[in-house]
Amino acid sequence: MQTRGAIVRQVPGKYEVVDLEVDDPRENEVQVKMVASGMCHSDDHVATGDIPVNVYPFAGGHEGAGIVTKAGVNTKGLKEGDHVVFSFLPSCGHCRWCASGMQNLCDLGAGLLDGARWGSPGDYRLKLTETGQGVGQMCGISTFLETTTVSADSAVKVPDDIPLDKACLVGCGVGTGWGSAVNSAEVQPGHTVIVMGIGGIGINAVQGAAHAGASNIIAVDPVAFKREKAQELGATHAVESMDEATELARQFTNGQGADSAIVTVGVVKPEHVAQAFGAIRKAGTCVVTGLGDVTEVGLPIAVSELTLMQKRLQGSLFGASNPNWDILRQLQLYREGVLKLDELVTKTYSLDEVAQGYQDMHDGKNIRGVIIY
Which pLDDT value is given to residue 162? Predict the structure, then answer.
């Protein structure tokens, strides 16, 4: 069928909206009419080239929710009319990682930036209407489309009463940030936590640290608006720099340092990790969640400090979530008024305004922009 979607043709580039053909669902696939899509920084990384993909043109978007309009066979119980949130990381359910409770590391994730069907190089669900050229799908889903066709491994059925324009956020940003604190940093009651960078991920790391019972949550961002939002969603303190945050953490801990520091900067540089690593106590945890240039290698940290102070440097993908469970439990927390989603949405956009949405993100105006279809 015909649809419209936002693609990048080359890098560096900007998203433009074009006419596309989208395949009908095959076995283990569903077609979904999109309701809303969050605008995550990772899609901007694709446009800048910080995250290289296998094929161009490439359709963006990986944080979305919609309603199933068609279903193939063997779709894990998904059927027409179901409300779904996409997990940007698919879960096959039977690889080593899924079977051991680490769905975020599912082997299907190897194809996230390939753009084609899992295990079928060159087999694209999308084509340009004007030329018939194949178009890659971001994370196999591409939520910057009015209608998309995806693997059932990427869709989680959610209750019909939860608004999809808010539920879409748990498909990436909420789970990634919240899980970075709860799962990866293992925040406990009474802890002192630094969250470095208050965007769509960092704001949810703040929420996660608050839910886990941290006594001191120090949000770090040079943008005053983002510091204010952090305090609205659980931060006890908000400062402009890591120097200030480190000093505060030491004041709260008799000079020891933060129990954990979570790096959620939009474009992570090695020095960001070093600053966070230096801010934590002995046996503390530095969680690196944000992304930058994926080809950059090396961290300016002392190996002796890693060894002799027994610090832990921990990567975090999707907040170490199990999406088939965590998406549903986070939506239940939202339903109970514990997890804030409405407050995360700074501004909504139409699909045709996708480029403006990312400009607003760069200008520090958004915590999370959301495209409404």
Answer: 97
Mean pLDDT score of the chain: 96
Q: How far is CA 97 from CA 101, 104, 316, 320, 326, in A?
A: 6, 8, 15, 11, 16
With a cut of 90, say whether residue 303 has pLDDT above it. Answer: yes
User: Would you kindly state where each structural domain of the chain is located, as residue ranges?
Assistant: 2-171+341-372, 178-316
Summarize the confidence of residues 2-11 as an average pLDDT. Answer: 97
Q: Do domains 2-171+341-372 and 178-316 have the same CATH topology?
A: no
CB atoms within 10 A of CB 106: 23
Q: In the prediction, which pLDDT does 294 show? A: 86
At residue 147, φ and ψ (nearest 5 deg) are: -140, 135
Which architecture characterizes domain 2-171+341-372 according to CATH? Answer: Alpha-Beta Complex (3.90)
User: What is the value of pTM for the model shown?
Assistant: 0.94
Four-CA torsion 217, 220, 221, 222, nearest 10 degrees: 130
Residues 6+ apart with CB under 8 A from 273: 263, 286, 288, 299, 301, 313
Is the link from the previous residue into 12 a cis peptide, with omega within 30 of 0? Answer: yes
DSSP H or E stretch at residue 42: helix 41-48
Element of type H or E holding 225? helix 224-232
Per-residue CA distances from 183 to 72, 209, 275, 314 (Å): 35, 10, 22, 11
pLDDT of 191: 98
Sequence-ordered list of residues with C-beta below 8 angstroms from that of 122, at least 6 positions apart, any chain: 116, 134
**Other C-beta atoms lying within 10 Å of the C-beta of residue 340:** 18
Tell me the per-residue pLDDT of 86-100, one tens digit each, with 9 for 90 and over.
999 999 999 999 999
pLDDT higher than 90, residue 364: no
Task: Summarize pLDDT for 305-328 with one digit per residue, the tens.
Answer: 999 999 999 999 999 999 999 999
Coil vs helix vs strand at 85: strand
| C-beta separation of 196 from 222 below 8 A | no
Supply the CATH classification number for the domain 178-316. Answer: 3.40.50.720
